[in-house]
Amino acid sequence: MPLRPLQLRKAMLKILKYSFYDLIRSRWSYVYFLFYLALGFVLLFLNNDVSKAVITLMNVIIVLIPLIGTIFGVMYYYNSREFTELLLAQPIKRTSIFMGQYFGVAGSLTLSLVLGLGIPFLLYGLMRSNAIFDFTLLLVTGAFLTFIFVGLSFVIAISNENKIKGFGYAVLLWLFLAVVYDGLFLMSLIMFEEYPLDTFSLVATALNPIDLSRILILLKLDISALLGYTGAIFKKFFGTDLGFLVSMAILLVWTVLPILGLRYKAKRKDF
Is residue 266's pLDDT more than 60? Predict the structure, then answer.
């Protein structure tokens, strides 16, 4: 007998809670939490200034968060496959199962990130610092990147039965967006420097959540001059209140797209 909508929501919440607590109890979650805790204390000790520590931290986590989200997402999907098959035998919608797992994984990683970085900065006097908004923005973009890349990794994993192939594709996607994409972007700017590239630069940035998050934080830290000519273009648009809202909206779209892809794959996959 199929479950009613209210029962389906309850089932999804139960799966979410199970996945969340399962990862929270995992030693890897403690490693993830302790890594950010240690990173926060070390950066504050070395810089002796909250604002400088935030800038240094941005360079690390903008690349690291997507990688960790990708690896955790793929690993959790394949490691919990037997449990998933058991759930699929129950009168529960497939989308409820995978949505619950996705939000459980992304939620636990986000909590580790927020607590791991929040504790040292709060103890150092973040609330009395002018960098509180910059630090909050860093955590918000970090949360967005976590949900985005966990979602992308789930979509890749559910599309590939072979664990090695799925893991490889997920890491290649991260590598492309974190490293290769920037190289191609810079090459295109050099090759077509004689042409007006304002619109191209903005669109190219919006098509990569890692670059968009990096630009957003750099602009709010008021160090866009490091980006040269493109920095002026980004500041002209993303530096405004409207540009900031558009950036947040684009990150939200990037978060929703993998969820829609996961729902589509879950409905049509033959388990």
Answer: yes
